[in-house]
Design a protein that fits this description.
Blueprint lengths: L1 H14 L1 H30 L10 E8 L14 H8 L4 E16 L2 E10 L3 H5 L3 E4 L10 E5 H8 L8 E5 L6 E10 L18 E4 L21 E6 L9 H11 L2 H6 E7 L3 H38 L2 H12 L4 H38 L11 H27 L3 H5 L3 H5 L3 H33 L9 E5 L7 H15 L4 E7 L10 E6 L7 E8 L3 H4 L4 E4 L12 E5 H6 L4 H4 L3 E4 L6 E7 L14 E5 H4 L4 E6 L4 H15 L7 E3 H8 L1 H35 L1 H9 L4 H35 L11 H26 L3 H6 L2
Parallel strand pairs: 3-8, 5-7, 14-19, 16-18
Antiparallel strand pairs: 1-9, 1-10, 2-3, 2-6, 2-9, 4-7, 5-8, 6-7, 11-20, 11-21, 12-20, 13-14, 13-17, 15-18, 16-19, 17-18
Helix pairs in contact: 1-10, 2-8, 2-10, 2-22, 8-11, 8-14, 8-22, 10-11, 14-22, 14-24, 14-25, 22-25, 24-25
Organism: Parapedobacter indicus
GO molecular function, one term: transmembrane transporter activity
Main location: membrane
Length: 803
């Protein structure tokens, strides 16, 4: 029985090679894209799941009523430890770390590395595998360090680096802390513990107790430090709500009143933190990609059903004869469902090599590393089997039940009209297909316009050919700043360098802290203003517009206790750029009064998702800390300029690694998710139009093939090509108009919700909607006209003579 089913189905597929090819091609496209998205989504959901006791792990986040007191991702230094010590029945463990970047050395090897100055509990708490050393006591003392295998290879050329010596540069003049490697752990996969800040993955872990990186012991010890990353593991069965009152009690016991009134402690689950971080950007990306894959797969299924229904007349006589000879309805259903499942399985098999072939392309598009087919686990294959089953049943269930239910007398005569009705379902599915395609295409155009707007908008500074060097050594005192200013001056004298600036921040994110300021005279209002340490050449190097005054008396050198404000800060203080110059400002929390030296035009120091906030620039010689040297390069030969700068850097600072980026790249990194979404949407739209085109081609070509005699008679009676074309076009015209009427309001609502995430965004116009409508009409009409022209070329005599 099964052998006969297979023979019958195989012969039918071979007899209709073109339609079978279209079936398989559409399904292969849909399944391949679904496989790509499925592997990507699975990888996104797996992030953090390798951590031990993941259901009980939480990040302590801070909600400040007044902006600028601290970051939401950090907390008070001693908080996590205190919660564990005073509420052991609620908190099982804790881990805190201070993320820093500095030079790690071993002998004559020096590398800039991300160093976590933290508690010694992180291996025990998260279960990171120890490759070498004592897993039960990875930190035997405060002078021991744990490094990753990759770091061990970089420093010592071997993975087993236990008992080797490393040193970590500090921010104090000439000071290095020497550590003995006590354990080596396996390289840590991306997670929300060691990649929490800026995506950095830490390779060196040293104890916080007794640490002198900032010139004083234990950076996590002070309640006045709101910039410590704190994490806790709750006892089994304990929920974050159970910590609400204990957190309030700890703050009341150890912190001053202004912190108690401003700070609310929140616990964020590590398990799904990656998906929910950054306003849920990753979760939105996953949702949009999943919907796109669902749309494309659904359109492929619609093509399958539509072509099957249109071609069903050729099988009606077969069905009628099989019923006459005793064939049961159940057997016919199995036959048609089996054929649909066979085609779907064939498409799924073809999707594996196609996935492997396109994997590098999608790795670039999604900025990820998709698993190779060779590394798929049983869950992927089980998912594919389920996908084949569901897709095959959805694709074949209607043709199977509809055709098998046709009356014997009508089926034997091949009466299509009575067998499948008036094609209401086919028209409905075509409308759904056009609606999905139109909505996806309009959405892609809107995303592209917003991304183009981001990269073309005047952001208030010039980022082209600005080279950002990480400034080492980090000696955060007057002597260190003076030394680095000397390095800056030497680099400025190079012919390849137009200008240079030493600063603590560059325009790649919101400054970390702010404080209250007001006019010293008491006029105007108080304002929370973010602070940045820069030098007198910062505005010139970044091409900022000076509205009034100077950037720290740029022509006359450094003058102590001066400040430069942006427009927003001036407005927040109740001043104008013209009236602000030489005004004195007082810090609300106390401190030296400062004089306004200049006002710069507002610039976007972070992404366009955030409003521009008040910013104050303090001179680095007052700020006494720095992190970056920004160089504005001359000429078009950037490679040669980099070579010259590197040579001079190594001459001036032979022990300091030369590491740099360009502001163009850092700016693009701010919009990584938008760029990924744009590229993925472009691919989805292309596949969407391809599937629509294949569906139209299959249905129209078969329809014309079935109407060859009608076309021949019309030609004999004087009908022209335009009459034939109108016969086919009119049905599609109605469907496309209906699809636009459905897609436009839905797309407008969804796109508006997405755009609301940006403080600076495009407005939705009718242009994208009309353009997509026109493109769909052009695509449909072009295919129909082409096929009609081909059909019209046939000799009517041959068609009428053929029986």
């Amino acid at each position: 029985m099964l052998k006969n089913y297979f023979k019958t189905g195989w012969r039918y597929l071979l007899r209709h090679r073109l339609l079978s090819f279209l079936h398989v091609l559409c399904l292969t496209i849909g399944i391949t894209f679904t496989l790509v998205v499925g592997i990507y989504v699975l990888g996104q959901y797996r992030i953090n799941h390798s951590l031990r006791n993941i259901d009980d792990q939480y990040i302590i986040k801070s909600r400040w009523k007044s902006e600028g007191f601290g970051l939401d991702i950090t907390t008070l230094g001693p908080l996590a430890k205190t919660l564990r010590e005073e509420y052991p029945s609620l908190v099982a463990d804790y881990y805190r770390y201070n993320p820093v970047t500095n030079v790690v050395s071993a002998g004559d090897k020096h590398f800039v590395e991300d160093v976590a100055i933290g508690d010694t509990s992180f291996i025990r708490m998260y279960g990171f595998p120890v490759s070498f050393g004592n897993a039960d006591q990875p930190f035997p003392n405060n002078h021991s360090a744990v490094i990753t295998e990759s770091m061990a290879l970089k420093l010592f050329g071997k993975k087993n680096a236990v008992d080797e010596t490393i040193s970590v540069h500090s921010t104090v003049q000439g000071d290095k802390q020497v550590y003995q490697v006590s354990a080596v752990i396996a390289d840590i996969p991306y997670n929300s513990v060691t990649n929490l800040v800026g995506g950095d993955n830490y390779s060196v872990f040293v104890p916080t107790e007794g640490n002198l990186y900032f010139g004083f012991e234990d950076p996590a010890a002070g309640w006045n430090n709101p910039f410590e990353i704190g994490m806790i593991q709750l006892q089994p069965g304990v929920t974050p709500a159970d910590l609400t009152i204990p957190c309030q009690q700890v703050l009341a016991k150890y912190t001053p009143e202004n912190i108690q009134q401003n700070l609310t402690i929140e616990l964020a689950s590590v398990k799904d933190y990656y998906l929910n971080d950054n306003g849920g950007a990753a979760r939105r990306m996953v949702a949009i990609l999943s919907l796109s894959a669902l749309f494309i797969l659904l359109m492929a299924i619609i093509n399958f059903v539509n072509i099957s229904v249109v071609t069903s007349s050729q099988r009606l006589k077969e069905i009628g004869l099989r019923k006459v000879f005793g064939g049961a309805k159940q057997q016919l259903i199995i036959q048609f469902l089996g054929e649909a499942l066979f085609l779907t399985a064939l498409a799924a098999l073809l999707s594996f090599p196609l996935y492997q072939l396109l994997r590098p392309v999608f790795n670039t598009i999604l900025n990820t590393q998709l698993d190779s087919v060779l590394h798929f686990g049983w869950t992927v294959y089980a998912g594919m089997a389920l996908l084949v089953l569901v897709t095959g049943l959805l694709a074949g269930i209607y043709p199977a039940f509809r055709l098998s239910s046709s009356p014997v007398t009508k089926a034997v005569k091949g009466r299509l009209d009575t067998a499948v009705g008036n094609f209401t379902l086919r028209k409905t599915m075509l409308t759904v297909q056009f609606t999905l395609g139109i909505a996806l295409s309009i959405g892609t155009l809107i995303v592209s316009r917003q991304v183009n707007y981001i990269f073309s908008k005047d952001i208030g500074y010039r980022k082209d050919q600005v080279m950002v060097i990480t400034a080492f050594p980090k000696q955060w005192d007057a002597a260190g700043v003076k030394q680095m200013m000397g390095v800056k001056q030497a680099l400025t004298e190079l012919a390849a360098v137009e200008s240079a600036s030493l600063s603590f921040e560059v325009p790649d994110g919101q400054p970390p802290n702010a404080f209250g300021m007001q006019q010293a005279s008491g006029d105007g209002s108080e304002a929370m203003i973010y602070s940045i340490g820069v030098d007198q050449d910062y505005a010139r190097t970044y091409g900022m517009t000076l509205l009034a005054g100077t950037c720290f008396a740029q022509s006359g050198g450094y003058i102590p206790n001066q400040v430069v404000l942006n427009e927003s800060a001036v407005a927040a203080l109740g001043l104008t750029p013209e009236t602000a110059i030489h005004k004195k400002l007082r810090q609300i929390a106390g401190g030296t009064d400062v004089t306004i030296a200049g006002v710069v035009k507002d610039y976007h120091y972070s992404s366009l998702q955030e409003q521009i906030k008040p910013v104050a620039f303090f001179h680095v010689q007052d700020f006494l800390s720095y992190r970056f040297l920004s160089l504005k390069l001359r000429g078009s030969n950037v490679a040669e300029s980099i070579k010259l700068v590197k040579q001079e850097w190594q001459k001036l600072l032979p022990d300091a690694p030369f590491e740099f980026t360009f502001m163009d790249d850092q700016f693009a990194a701010l919009y990584q998710s938008e760029l990924q979404l744009k590229r993925a949407a472009d691919v989805a739209t292309t596949l969407n139009f391809l599937i629509i085109a294949l569906g139209i081609f299959g249905i129209v070509s078969f329809t014309l093939a079935k109407r060859t005699k009608e076309i021949a008679v019309r030609k004999v009676l004087g009908a022209e090509l335009r009459h034939l074309t109108l016969l086919i076009v009119k049905d599609y015209t109605r469907l496309i108009i209906i699809a636009n009427l459905i897609a436009w309001p839905l797309t407008y609502w969804v796109a508006n919700k997405w755009l609301e995430g940006y403080s600076y965004r495009i407005g939705q116009g009718v242009g994208e909607y009309l353009l997509v409508c026109l493109l769909v009409f052009v695509l449909a009409y072009g295919l129909i006209i082409g096929l009609c022209v081909q059909a019209n070329r046939a000799n009517p005599v041959d068609s009428l003579r053929d029986e």
